[in-house]
Amino acid sequence: MLYWLMKYIILGPWLRLIFRPQVEGREHVPDSGAAILASNHLSFSDSIFMPLIVKRKVTFVAKAEYFTGRGLKGWLTRQFFVGTGTIPVDRSGGRAAQAALDTQLEVLRAGNLAGIYPEGTRSPDGRLYRGKTGVARLALVSGAPVIPVVMLNADEIQPPGKLIPKIKRVRIRFGAPLDFSRYAGLAADRFVERAVTDEIMYELMELSGREYVDMYAQKVKNQQAEEQAPAVSAGRLAA
Question: Model-level pTM?
Answer without folding.
Answer: 0.88
